[in-house]
Design brief:
Structural class: alpha/beta
Shape: globular
Protein name: ECHD2 protein
Family: Belongs to the enoyl-CoA hydratase/isomerase family.
Low-confidence stretches: none
Keywords: Lyase
Strand order of the largest sheet: 1-3-5-8
Strand content: 5-15%
Number of helices: 10
InterPro entries: ClpP/crotonase-like_dom_sf, Enoyl-CoA_hyd/isom_CS, Enoyl-CoA_hydra/iso, Enoyl-CoA_hydra_C
Radius of gyration: 19 Å
Distance between the termini: 18 Å
CATH architecture of the largest domain: Alpha-Beta Complex
CATH topology of the largest domain: 2-enoyl-CoA Hydratase, Chain A, domain 1
Pfam family, one: ECH_1
Number of domains: 2
Helix content: 40-55%
Order of helices and strands: EEHHEEHEEHHEHEHHHH
């Protein structure tokens, strides 16, 4: 996906009704020795980092349980949409573990340190409405009879992104992600570098021309 220029938005959804991602298989994990567990979790962390580093916007459609590594997968995405009945939680401490695939870092960046500590320390599960109220998800929707309400809302959200200039969106994502890790002065410099890369694009010229000609722009990602 990273190198496919035709990809504009990636939506993560489950094919299992009622479950987005239930996290690690603890029965499988119990058969591993300490070294195997460490290797497994490192690979999982690397996978989440790869998802987070995708250049295009990513949306997690949470239509059911997103627990442990399942919520870490959703946190690795840029945006999250949840059914109101969905259940989410970093439940690792209830199993003698702690989040190991980015949860301790991405959750506080999403909801703030205090809430993140409370959720991780207690291992509490919350529903979609609670997640929305604390800013963990961007949108919450009532579940439908098909069990894919969050996915349907994610598609609507993706379609809002699709008409926009692809390279500008990518640069916007890069500027936000990199800028969040540094002080604001350094962040401004990062924004400036990203903006400079966008200036010579054909899409920028098209955007200006479309505005002048009072017509919708036709962006090509170049």
């Amino acid at each position: 996906l990273r190198f496919d220029e035709k990809v504009r938005v990636v939506v993560f959804k489950s094919e299992v009704k009622g479950v987005f991602c239930a996290g690690a298989d603890l029965k499988e994990r119990a058969k591993m020795d300490d070294a195997e567990v460490a290797h497994f979790v490192k690979r999982l962390r690397n996978l989440m980092d790869e998802i987070a580093a995708l250049p295009v916007p990513t949306i997690a459609a949470i239509d059911g349980y997103a627990l442990g590594g399942g919520l870490e997968l959703a946190l690795a995405c840029d945006l999250r949409v949840a059914a109101s009945s969905a259940k989410m939680g970093l439940i690792e401490t209830t199993r003698g573990l702690l989040p190991g695939a980015g949860g301790t870092q991405r959750l506080p960046r999403c909801v703030g340190i205090g809430l993140a500590k409370e959720l991780i320390f207690t291992g509490r599960q919350i529903d979609g409405q609670q997640a929305f109220s604390m800013g963990l998800v961007n949108h919450t929707v009532p579940q439908n009879t098909e069990g894919d309400a969050a996915y349907q809302r994610a598609i609507v959200l993706a379609k809002e992104i699709l008409p926009q200039a692809p390279f500008a969106v990518k640069m916007g994502k890069l500027a936000i992600n990199r800028g969040m890790e540094v002080d604001i002065a350094s962040g401004m410099a990062i924004e400036g570098m990203c903006y400079a890369q966008n200036i010579p694009t054909r899409d920028r010229q098209e955007g200006m021309a479309a505005f002048k000609e009072k017509r919708p722009p036709h962006f090509i990602g170049k």
